[in-house]
Amino acid sequence: ARRIWLTRHGQSEYNLKSRIGGNSPLAPAGEVYARCLSDMLIDRVPQDGDQRVPVSVWTSTLCRTIQTARYLPFFKLRWKALDEIQAGTCDGLTYDEIAQLFPEEFAARQKDKLRYRYPAGESYLDVIQRLEPVIIEMEREKESIVVVGHQAVLRAVLGYFMAKPLESIPTLDVPLHTLLELRPRPDGTMDFEYIHMS
Ligand code: G3H
């Protein structure tokens, strides 16, 4: 009874200031989520007879996912391919600042969020492409996996498992402080359950 759990990192200092990108640590509420995540997951690891099914935790290389995973008592792996979408010259800005400083860029992204590539950064299509090896490993893996990721990256992962049209991926809802449980069905499709922080 293998599970795949997906979660964004806990609220970060940049989330609090509405800044994108960067590599900020968790804010106090994010730290609370990190502890809560560990409790929620330990309760949910399926039993196989009297044995708990092994679990590994995959994070990005950014400190907010590593901090969110730090209380999980499982083997951990860091994937560069799970890092958040690169915002290039817009990294560290708020959306208001981007609209003021680079109005053409802001408008171009609103027009085509899937294909828009930040100057010196990435598009959603770029992210979807670089996630391919991670998704192949997720499908191949026999153990249960906890993926602690980022909004754009998890939109792409979720879009793949939910077989969503590409165009819908950049606006899929992946809320903070919510754990998403995926349970593979025998026919290869998945059941999904959203678990909110208790
Ligand atoms: O840049 C970081 C955000 O998590 C991505 O959100 O693609 O909706 O701007 P966005």
From TrEMBL:
<protein>
    <submittedName>
        <fullName>Uncharacterized protein</fullName>
    </submittedName>
</protein>
